[in-house]
Amino acid sequence: MPPRRVITGRSQEPRKRFAEELKKLRLERKLSYRALGSALGWDATLFSKMEKGETIGGPEVVEALDAYYGLPGLLLALWELAAGDQTQFRAKYRQYMALEAEAISLWHYAACVMPGLLQTETYARELMKTGLLEGNELERQIKARLGRQELLTGPNALGMRTILSENVLRTSLSDSAQWQDQLRHLLEVGDRRNVIIQVVPNSVGLYALNGTHVTFLRLADGRVVAWVETSYAGSLIEGTSDVDLLQLRYDRARDLALSPADSRKFIMRTLEEAQCEPSI
């Protein structure tokens, strides 16, 4: 079968096409970002980021755009395709990303690296560079990672609990100011009602998940699957007995963790320490 003929000349990638359509509609009406933001009641920078492909926004703003432009449901349909587009992720992670997008709740343990849903752009960039990503692929994967964080916003935001090993908070970025921004971002996200952050201090000693980065996803059908990840690859665990065993280890790590309130204080102390000038 011959390849499908492209009629419009615009992108066939869902996220790029969504951004292109937003820009086209705004320019046709000769609107500035500020004018659009004023008309809809959203910050103008959001529309700029959406048109640049840095975010796809939430369903509420897309529904408002649909109503404003008189296109009932059209932009929302494009948004749904963009949100479900797994081609933005590296092939070995697409299975997990598809499940994450469908999950109704998520909980995980981070052994040494800040979870992707909690990373700033600078943290994601520095981390991905260690994996030898560069150029356009690096930029594409950073956008994809930051785009995932939309799961934590909006009225249907994903419920998330994360347990961080203290090692996550002791492994800073090369730039102290950027590391402080990451810690502030962690505190800001932790203020959301759908996000719980706990810290396991190193003083508790060894425990079952010391070296394992694991994520549990509860799906709409009630199933719970687990994703175990290293710096090289990840494995999806679907067998009930294996998931139960990992869950038991997770629960024991949670028993050792500080409370959410004390964890917040711990992160704040870490930030204060990072702000202090090193002694000479």
Give an overview of the whole structure.
It contains twelve helices and six strands. With 280 residues, the chain is α/β, with parallel strands linked by helices. Strand 4 and strand 5 form a beta hairpin. Helix 1 runs antiparallel to helix 5 and helix 10 packs antiparallel against helix 12. The radius of gyration is 21 Å and the shape is globular. The relative contact order is 0.11.
Throw out a few tags for this protein.
280 residues; alpha/beta; six-stranded mixed β-sheet; 12 helices; 12% strand; disordered N terminus
Any low-confidence stretches, pLDDT <50, length ≥5? 1-5
How far is the first residue's CA from the last residue's CA? 70 Å
Strand order in space, largest sheet: 3-2-1-4-5-6
Beta-strand residue fraction: 5-15%
Helix content: 40-55%
Classification by helices and strands? alpha/beta
Number of alpha- plus pi-helical segments: 12
Mean pLDDT, to the nearest integer, reads 83
The count of strands amounts to 6
The helix/strand order is: HHHHHHEHHEHHEEEEHH
Shape: globular
Largest sheet: number of strands, sense, barrel closure: 6 strands, mixed
**Radius of gyration using CA atoms only:** 21 Å
